[in-house]
Design brief:
There is one protein chain. This protein has 4 helices and 11 strands. It has 211 residues and is an alpha+beta fold. Among the domains are: 92 residues, no CATH class; 41 residues, no CATH class. Strands 1, 2, 3 and 4 form a 4-stranded mixed β-sheet that branches. A 3-stranded antiparallel β-sheet has the order 6-5-7. A hairpin with a 5-residue loop joins β1 and β2. The longest helix has 26 residues. The protein is elongated.
Amino acid sequence: MNRALGRLLSTTLIASIWILSVPAATWACVCCACDFGGGAIQCGVNDTDCGNCIFEGGVPAPNCDACATDAECDGGEALCAGDPDMCVTGPTGACCARSCAIVTEAGCAAASGIYQGDGTDCSVPCKKPIGEGCSTGDECESTFCATGVCCETACTGPGEVCNAREHRGECVVAADAQPAPALAPWALYVTVALLGIIGVVTVRRHGTRSS
């Protein structure tokens, strides 16, 4: 019992020392001091590792002063270009979001993109999202290209299209290929009765004219 407890305490102590030896900021920079040019520097709260900043055409600012008064970004949690107190990020790679940019994996997630892996670059075109025009499935994130559009499925059923105006990227049956709605049983009975009545009236009129 004492040995097991001793091992547990030792393991906990080693883990605690390792965690404390790694600055919290290395996990991800929760904010971004972003320079959009012309002196327009913005502090982006929740713009982890400047992912959105980079995709929107900005770059990390020369220093993090713009975030010094922001309670959520102060204390070394913001990313900028040259400030010695800036947080430290991990490796970078290509990220496909609104276009392709080189950011960290956390920054790619902040921009709602798809991270291509550490060390990758933008030399390979990004896959197109569902709804974008395509020629082959290799161009699409979904791997499906149907009726000239990146589609959610293969969409190869009878009358199915993926480029319908209100459902672009969604596989639906084309309007002109949809079967006519079936009549409910009661409606069918009413229709038959009406046709019978019309037939009887027509015959009587014809008989009256003949006499």
